[in-house]
Amino acid sequence: MANDEALASLRWNVRDAAVEIIDQTLLPHTLHWLRLHTLDDYCHAISAMQVRGAPLIGITAAFGLAHALACDASDAALASARATLLATRPTAVNLRWALDVVAQAVAPLPPGQRAAAALDSAIALREAEIASCASIGDHGLAILQELARVLGCSAQRPLQVMTHCNAGRLATVHWGTALAPVYKAHAAGLPLHVWASETRPRNQGTHLTAWELQQAGVPCTVVADNSCGQLMRAGQVDCVIVGSDRTAANGDVCNKVGTYLKALAAADNGVPFYVALPASTVDWECACGAEIPIEERDAREVLWASGVDASGANQSVRLAAEPTRAANPAFDVTPARLVQGLITEHGVFAASPEGLARLRKALGAG
Q: Which domains, and CATH codes, for the chain?
């Protein structure tokens, strides 16, 4: 997968001075680029999951704050826009991190200079995100190459990688986190195959991961969430790589709901379980996973399903009888003890307080 702007999931249109995103709620059946015009557009894009994935949420919010300051750069407007964007989704720490980066860059400046500085900051964050994910891919590639060597992988026996939810370019800007090593391995000619779990209830694995892997020519198979343990037990999975929406300082990882179950199955079957994330996804103020707020989404996502019928029309159907109730936690926490390693742009670190301390030192923060 070349480092091509056409593959980015969020682009800055210099000519029109506008942000354009892929509306991910329409995938995989329709690829539609959506232009964001107002602060409400940015907030809706995040809360309605037109953009999703911790890194992409953060970058979108950074551009949203820059847009708001172009309309009103006063202290009150800065505080109001930041609070409005921060309230869109509670779990992914990159949202707060990106808003803080932009706010800290513009706060000391006079109002007349803030809009340009905020835009420069958002663009820089976007470019840094692309570079960060490329580095994650390089470090993860080394893991996959060594695993393939030990297992004697070949075209007849490709490396079998499992992932959950979507942590590819649709969750970042380019490359992705968990899928970055896969894309790097594919480009290097390493034979591999990806098991993409469907990721109920929003089916990001089916709708997004499978779509982008197919676009890149990476062999993949969608499987029901509940089949993943059996695949591991049968020896059909060589490693699991997932992303993270927030990682605590002790190495606990919060990711899309269902991740914890895969980590348990991987531990029981001796399958290496890795988490790929940029350092911006670590919440250094969060001592452990129990402190991470878990987003509860609309029960309709569980009780209804959407898709395209035989005529090509979009349809929604109810799966459960009235008046069935549903709980819909969007994330779960995987304890650090189940994580083989954290693949970051700075290298691979143990999922432990000591490992995170080494990462923090690499960042120059300790």
A: 5-127 (1.20.120.420), 134-362 (3.40.50.10470)
